[in-house]
């Protein structure tokens, strides 16, 4: 489907990697968006693009590529800043009148899944940081891939993006998949006693650009 909900097929070159399976208007507390659902070929996971305004052939489109975080996005967990970042991104896009949040399912826990993330939280309560906890579980620190996000942006027709992120790895991966990242826009959220350790580890071990002591 294109931005107006008409049927289309997502391809990059000749390699079709997903079906664009559904699209509808979606009124939200940030105003009206169009929601698009994408399903990778042969998978059951459903990714989402929340689109505001016309994106086709546009330069410098505001984009948030957001990794699913059930605890933060849905339940308002204060262990991380995901929910706050998602809300801030939707608000900023609404204010600009144009942009998209690409919401990546299957990215939970930086790719290790919900149960493993919760196991990691338990280890964090025993003093490990977010990186050490994954390693203690015998799991990689971050196995997220952004190819599908790049294809979704291609399907929406954006020419270049202003990416709302603090994560340089995400920027590089998207660029490696052919997305023209014109600018990075920091997504700064409030530090609390609950998330300060998580944010500090992101800054010190994962290279996130977070400007605090
Ligand atoms: N394994 C693990 N994953 C976590 C933890 N806290 C949050 N996450 C996951 O981390 C993902 C969010 O990634 P982050 O590294 O926080 O941020 P980012 O999206 O890479 O970068 P930004 O664009 O700057 O937000 C979500 O999928 C969360 O479920 C944790 O303690 N352990
Ligand atoms: Zn989170």
From TrEMBL:
Residues 22-186 form the GTP cyclohydrolase II domain. Keywords: GTP-binding, Hydrolase, Metal-binding, Nucleotide-binding, Riboflavin biosynthesis, Zinc. SUPFAM superfamilies: RibA-like. Its cofactor is Zn(2+). It holds the Pfam family GTP_cyclohydro2. GO terms for biological process: riboflavin biosynthetic process. Its EC number is 3.5.4.25. The active site is at residues 142, 144. GO terms for cellular component: cytosol. InterPro entries: GTP_cyclohydro_II, RibA, RibA-like_sf. This is GTP cyclohydrolase-2. It comes from Noviherbaspirillum saxi.
